[in-house]
Specification:
single chain, mainly alpha, 1 helix, rod-shaped
């Protein structure tokens, strides 16, 4: 930083900034696996509820 007659100035150097990773790295096998487990859980729940209602009627 330099001062000349009460005015401060900076000297900037033109340099290349580092590259930043901005992409999205999704784990597709894990997403598909959790979707499959959720689907199995929901299907099992529906089947159990239908069987329970069938016994009560």
């Amino acid at each position: 930083m330099e001062e000349t007659d009460g005015v401060y100035s900076f000297v900037y150097y033109n340099s290349l900034m580092p590259s930043i990773q901005t992409g999205n790295e999704m784990n597709y096998p894990m997403i598909l696996g959790s979707m499959a487990i959720s689907l199995i859980g929901v299907t099992t729940g529906v089947v159990i509820l239908k069987r329970k209602n069938k016994k009560n009627n």
